[in-house]
Amino acid sequence: MRLRADDLASLAALLCCASIPVWHMLRAPSWAMSLAAVLAALAICAALVLSFKARNRAREAASANHRRINDSVRRYDELCAAIAGNSGVQYATLGKSLDRVREIVANAVQDLREGLSDEGSPAHKSGSQKRALRGLVDELVTLASEEMLTGQESGKRNFAGEAKAAIHKFVETVEYLKTSGQHISTRFDAMRTNVEAVNGMIGEVGQINKQTELLALNAAIESARAGEAGRGFAVVADEVRKLAQRTEKFSEQISGRLQGIQEIIDEVGAVVAVTSSTDIAHVRESESHVIAMTDEISERAARARMHSERINDISESIRAIIMQDILSLQFEDLVSQLLDRLHDHTDSMSRFSAGFFDLHRDSEERDGVTRITRRNQLLQTLLEDAQQARGANRLDIAESAQKNGSIELF
User: Fold this and answer.
1) 52 or 125, which is more confident?
2) Angle at CA of residue 238, ends 249 and 231, nearest 5°
3) Against a cut of 0.70, is the pTM above it?
């Protein structure tokens, strides 16, 4: 672990304080012990100033990082909610389109039945051909009325796995941010311990100053007894006593500053503790909900795919029969155009889903805040593109399409 400048200053102060009792035991001059006390006080002052600046920088950085995290996560939640709402609108639009297809098919089937039931119609062939056509049309109407068709799209096959991976990566990012907050909290605890140790050293310096002052007083008494020969020593003793008094006053000032720093450290430590204790249980719960939703969507997508394939088969069969005997109705052309339009719509929804998961493929970015900010920008772009595509993919079939054999899409 690399030592900071305030740590080195604290060690220097500790060494100076430890040398004073040693010098006292060795009967060193009192001015030397006073000098050591002054050096210790200066080292402690330097350590306090450096530590105070470092704490301020750390507190500002932690507060700024906490605000960035909160703003980015809040924006991410808002964009995800907007995308979820936009997806609901897309699926609702697709459902309306399928309902319209079902209505058109039902009307066309009714016309076909009326034409096939007419024994004098030129399109009437054998009874077996008529029954086969009716059976295929009935099955087509049944499949078109299934609610599962509202969820069909080509991109859903990979939706479940990609959703789980994206949510898992987001949870890992939140857990990493929480771990970083806990590490910062541990460092602040260590800072608090160092400040308390410095407070203890200040107390020891005060005791040493009192002893120095007492020694200076004894020296003055002895010089007074010595008379004229002890005057010079009395002057030195008086200066030592003054120096001890100044050192004691300086120690009191340092103690006051230490108390202020201790309060700042406690305040910042409380903020960091709140950050590190952030509960991510709701993130885990959201992950479970998304996984359950993706499983359900995967199941519905599989069923919708089977229905779509069956509809294609039935459409081909109907086309073969109708093209032989009832070309004037143009039923196959109508259904083909409707299915093509729905295919374009589902492709648009597939691109929307693929874009949502592509923006989560950012594992190479190690900075969690930068990652979330980038996701927010991509989500905003994706949402705007989806709204434009929704306006371009509106489907509306005129009620007269079944009568004149034409389709109008707008």
Assistant:
1) 52
2) 175
3) no
